[in-house]
Design brief:
The chain is an alpha/beta fold. It has 2 domains: 145 residues, Glycogen Phosphorylase B (Rossmann fold, 3-Layer(aba) Sandwich), CATH 3.40.50.2000; 160 residues, 3-Layer(aba) Sandwich (Rossmann fold), CATH 3.40.50. The chain contains 12 helices and 12 strands.
């Protein structure tokens, strides 16, 4: 499908979390390559405003989405929605791109924005704003490849599947201010948290894995958000060796610097695993939700995704972790 006329104003709707956004970056990179002069507005959750500073080449503006009934990421601001809708209609977008999901909830809503074109995903049993511009939602493929398939459907060629997470000078300063006793390439990050307890590998198993590598001389750093401090303390309490607990003291940027200089990351399938993929830090990713083919990193040499729902064997995780470290120990740390 080729758009008729030039697209000067584009809105991207993806009101989701960090990992979801990073997986969409290859598609957004492809979009920007075809429309280098377009003004691209990101419609998303409040935290996503930070992406303008991290990806200034891809996003020009941000509008906070007030939520909508049926979307679980935030409680909808019903009173604020009419003002959002009015502002979006007044913006007169040439294209609204729906990267949220299969479209069952959001497609009728986005049609109300009254853009010249609306494109995205749909299911055959649901409403489709424009059959020519909507791709039937492809199930059971990697999230990165799903969005690139939509770009291909729209006549926008891929610019590669690689993830990105640019490190800024501020990120480096924030990391240095932590003054942690870490030597690049000589520590392993353990990230036991994720959104939703059902997606978290048991803390005692993370502790056992951390102890094993600590016994081999690796420094262990446990990472997490402020809300995850109790979880990281639980992991540390099960360990025989002493770990640095960095939970709650890092910004997103300083955490990325820490991951960049780590020898490896061991984590659940969550946002930090996509940061590791973007920064080419070797990782072991434990998938607890049965969707490793959707969310696992594409580079199988640097990243091992373990589907815990199918094979709950700690010895296999340990073996894969040892193999990963043996295969990648001689890799230089990216500068």
């Amino acid at each position: 499908m080729n758009f008729v006329g030039d697209l000067q104003k584009i809105a991207i709707f993806r009101a989701l979390q960090l990992g979801d956004m990073l997986c969409a970056i290859p598609a957004i990179r492809a979009l920007r390559t075809v429309f280098p002069d377009a003004h691209i507005t990101l419609l998303g959750l409040p935290w996503e405003q930070s992406l303008l500073a991290r990806f200034p080449g891809y996003f020009d503006a941000f509008v906070q989405f007030p939520g909508y009934p049926g979307l679980p990421e935030q409680a909808p601001d019903i009173a604020g929605f009419p003002a959002f809708l009015q502002a979006m209609q007044a913006a007169q977008f040439d294209l609204v791109l729906q990267l949220q999901g299969n479209g069952s909830v959001v497609n009728p809503m986005l049609a109300l924005l009254n853009a010249r074109y609306t494109a995205g995903y749909w299911r055959k049993e649901d409403y489709c704003p424009d059959p020519a511009l909507f791709l039937e939602y492809p199930e059971h493929i990697n999230e990165i490849e799903r969005h690139l398939a939509l770009m291909h459907h729209l006549g926008i060629p891929s610019q590669g599947k690689e993830l990105e997470f640019p490190i800024t000078a501020q990120d480096k300063d924030e990391f240095e201010q932590l003054q942690l006793p870490l030597i690049p390439g000589e520590y392993i990050c353990i990230h036991p948290g994720s959104r939703g307890s059902w997606r978290q590998w048991p803390p005692v198993l993370f502790a056992s894995l951390a102890d094993h590598f600590a016994s081999l001389g690796w420094q262990i750093v446990i990472t997490g958000t402020k809300e995850e401090i109790p979880l990281t303390l639980e992991v540390a309490s099960h360990m025989q060796y002493t770990a640095i607990n960095a939970a709650g003291i890092t910004t997103l940027g300083s955490l990325a610097v820490m991951v960049k200089h780590a020898r490896a990351l061991f984590s659940n399938c969550t946002g930090i695993s996509h940061i590791a993929a973007a920064l080419q830090t070797p990782s072991i990713v434990i998938s607890m939700d049965g969707e490793p083919e959707r969310w696992g990193p594409l580079n199988k040499q640097l990243h091992y995704t373990i589907d815990w729902t199918k094979e709950q064997r700690y010895d296999r995780v340990l073996n894969w972790s040892e193999h990963l470290l043996a295969q990648t120990t001689q890799r230089p740390i990216l500068q």
